[in-house]
Specification:
Blueprint lengths: L6 H6 L4 E6 L4 H8 L5 E5 L7 H11 L5 E5 L5 H9 L4 E4 L5 H11 L22 H11 L1 E6 L2 H5 L1 H5 L6 E4 L1 H7 L9 H16 L3 E6 L5 H7 L3 E6 H18 L8
Parallel strand pairs: 1-2, 1-8, 2-3, 3-4, 4-5, 5-6, 6-7, 7-8
Helix pairs in contact: 2-3, 4-5
């Protein structure tokens, strides 16, 4: 699976690019999502049950689809970036970034020397097991996407400095963590939360970056577009499966025969 040369530029141009989260650790739902029409998918290794044992299978599954695979690592630690990028992730999402220094550390972990500290190995899936290594080494910093999560009031306060970091391509609001940390759990349409969203988006625009967010309800998508968000995810494979199964069970219960029909 060759690293696309244009997707990161489309993100930075603030093209509308829609995605979803994959938190089941399943290559089957990963492939279904990749074929569903999303521009990108997020394989969640922060909160999802998947790990290194499932990641390669998920990346194999997404490789047969048009979707751009981003992996969320569990923590902003350099070895985690190396592992997912070597396995063929095209982008990395980094949780709980609260400062420009932390954003810079994430970018450094994603880039080869002299631009960063990513370990160099030619035989890895990201570089086609060595077949494309020279091109991959020369251009990976231009093509791999860094998605920096804004999840605390401290991160919102520092978002202008975070967005100014070269290579911090998307400043991405984590709505659950941010709203809970603001003391307004899940109140995504409140004035206070919208103000935080505006601040993140304004910083992204000032520095030529994109603003992103995950929402769980289709009704919130127009609000995100109105506020200037362009890298937007809706729901997850786990959420979709749960909602569908709940609706199936409810329909069957409603259609169950009463005492007279037994």
């Amino acid at each position: 699976m060759k690293l696309p040369s244009d997707f990161r530029q489309r993100v930075l141009a603030r093209e509308w690019l829609c995605g979803t989260f994959l938190n089941l650790g399943s290559p089957v739902t990963t492939e279904i999502a990749g074929l569903a029409g999303f521009d990108w998918v997020l394989i969640d290794h922060e909160h999802g049950p998947g790990g290194e044992d499932t990641l390669l299978h998920q990346l194999h599954a997404i490789g047969s689809t048009p979707a751009f695979p981003v992996v969320r690592v569990a923590a902003n630690e350099a070895p985690r970036f190396k592992r997912v990028l070597d396995q063929g992730a095209f982008g990395v999402m980094v949780p709980y970034v609260n400062s420009a220094a932390e954003a810079q550390a994430a970018v450094n972990a994603m880039r080869y020397p002299p631009r960063g500290i990513r370990g160099v190995a030619k035989f890895n899936r990201g570089a086609a097991y060595g077949n494309d290594f020279d091109e991959y080494f020369a251009h990976a910093h231009e093509r791999i996407l860094a998605v920096i999560q804004i999840e605390t009031p401290a991160a919102v306060a520092a978002v202008d400095d975070i967005a100014a970091v070269d290579g911090a391509d998307v400043v991405f609001v984590g709505p659950t963590d941010l709203s809970y940390n603001m003391g307004i759990p899940n109140q995504l349409q409140s004035d206070a939360f919208k103000d935080a969203m505006r601040r993140v988006c304004a910083a992204a625009r000032r520095h030529g970056k994109a603003a992103g967010i995950l929402v769980h309800s289709p009704e919130l998508v127009p609000m995100c577009r109105e506020l200037g968000y362009t890298f937007v995810a809706l729901g997850s494979d786990g959420g979709g499966v749960r909602a569908a199964l709940l609706s199936y069970a409810a329909a069957l219960r409603q259609g169950a025969p009463g005492p007279a029909g037994r």
